[in-house]
Amino acid sequence: MRAVHQCVLLFVVCIGCAKQRSLPSDSKFNVTSVLNDTVWFGTGKVLRLRETGEKIENVKKFNLIVYTDIDYPGMGSGPNPNTSNGCIDPECTKTQGLLIYNIPLKKGRFKIAKLDKNSQLKNEHASLSYLGNSGGVLNRYIYDGSIPGWIKITKFNKASGIIEGRFAISFSQDTQFDLLPLRNKMPKTSQFTNGLFRIKLTDVLLK
Predict the structure, then answer these.
(1) Which pTM was predicted?
(2) Residues 102, 48: Cα–Cα separation, whole Å
(3) Angle CA 58–59–60, to nearest 5
(4) What's the pLDDT tens digit per position in 37-96?
(5) Is 10 helix (H, G, I), strand (E, B) or coil?
(6) Which residues are within 8 A (CB) of 145 and not within 5 positions of it... i.e. 6 or more apart?
(7) What DSSP line would sit under 109-171, residue for residue?
(8) How far is the CA of 57 from the CAs of 34, 54, 77, 100, 162, in angstroms?
(9) Is the Cβ–Cβ distance between 167 and 151 less than 8 Å?
């Protein structure tokens, strides 16, 4: 019986360790994940948007925007110029964009469905877009809530502005736009798992 208790305790400890996973300190990219069983990475920004005259301490949420230049089936002969640096520098031809809005600026786990519901703008919802050479959208995936998605803020250093977290979210093809070139040529879903990020907060003053 004692051995069983020890095994259970070890399992609980391991689960606790798993929950504390964070982006390795030597990671080349500030966002990593697995997309449909394939390693995915990119460069993310966390933006705190402030209206003119609004005090920065009153802004309690931010947006996560991630771009990468990873190739994908159906993109044609591009991108041009062809880059493969995960968009870590300005010399980047963006091929995919991940957006999550209205994330509370505090530690905690938040449901994507609730974040989307709190949106004040019509198209301000979590999404994944596949981009063409000219920047146009070739296919778009949105969060429809069929599979629960979440983002968790594990650390927020107010002094440095560094935000760390994890996410898991499954998108479905956006059926609103039937004319997108790759609309019926790509998988019906795009699922992110094991998402990790560590990004410095950027304040943006809206004009």
Answers:
(1) 0.85
(2) 9
(3) 105
(4) 999 999 999 999 988 888 888 889 999 999 999 988 877 666 666 777 899 887 888 999
(5) helix
(6) 112, 113
(7) EEEHHHHHHT-SSTT-S-EEEEE-TTS-EEEEEE--SSS--EEEEEEEETTTTEEEEEEEEEE
(8) 34, 9, 47, 21, 16
(9) yes
List beta partners, residue 173.
Answer: 141
Alpha-carbon distances, residue 128 vs 19, 43, 116, 189 (angstroms): 25, 14, 14, 10
d(CA 100, CA 157): 20
CB 80 within 8 A of CB 93: yes
**62: nearest Cα among 169, 156, 174:** 156
Per-residue pLDDT tens over the stretch 85-111: 899 887 888 999 999 999 999 999 999
For CA atoms 87, 92, 95, 99, give the dihedral sign: positive
CB < 8 Å & 24+ apart, contacts of 5-13: none
Compute the radius of gyration of the chain from its Cα atoms.
19
